[in-house]
């Protein structure tokens, strides 16, 4: 998966991180991967220009005059032709995702306001759920992945009432911010190529945000993954499996999919992504795990299998 953020320096400097903006690497490095983007980087805020060129002003006036001429012509034509018998004016029907997008995304607060309840339509296993140059738009809730509860220092990654054993060769936590629909996110990642990472994470899904049960929550998270900045050039999603699971005796649901991309900046097909959502016994929240490893990477796919099998309720 690719997304703007600080990543271990591809030049190999130990303890240093370099910023990837979705198009290229920054010249600046840092030892703090939680810091803001470097000034002038794509995606970072820059100073707005205080001047407007005379050429732009003239073009704007000309465009306004053209619009006025068209409007006057339309009114004149309607007056001459009169009403059109039997003609009705309709509105195009909206294409719905698995979420109810009729209301704006909620912003986090101390006491969350319930969001519209998602109603995903699961895709039959083994068939593409979508295709095209980008994923279908999904209005995922706005959480706070950086909000953290207190967790033990026991060699495991904790979040949302779930945990998994730390993975050798992976770096802790630098891409947790990309999982923007969740809270209390703990994560590990590994750089696969210049602009691609493998990611494992756990966190909290709030029921007030519309994650209502493990099966619906797993589908909703998979939709959020496929339509997020992780997968620029999204081309398709194929579900490999969907099944009920138990984690430490607690009921959950797991979906494994292939998310493919058509991105000339990467030489990978996409990721195998697994999402597991568990009823951890809280009346307010569900526990979430997600893992993403490159399609065709047998070693990392086995690591994904081991990590899912190792999930514990903490």
From TrEMBL:
Q: Does the keyword Hydrolase apply?
A: no
Q: Where is this region: Disordered?
A: 1-52, 81-160
Membrane keyword on record: yes
Which positions fall inside the DUF2510 domain? 4-37
Give the record's keywords alphabetically: Membrane, Transmembrane, Transmembrane helix
User: What Pfam family is a match, any one?
Assistant: DUF2510
List all membrane-crossing ranges. Answer: 57-81
Composition bias type Low complexity, residue spans: 126-137
Which branch of life, at top level?
Answer: Bacteria
User: Compositional bias of type Pro residues: which residue ranges?
Assistant: 111-125
InterPro entries hit by this protein: DUF2510
Q: What is this protein called?
A: DUF2510 domain-containing protein
Gene source species: Microlunatus panaciterrae
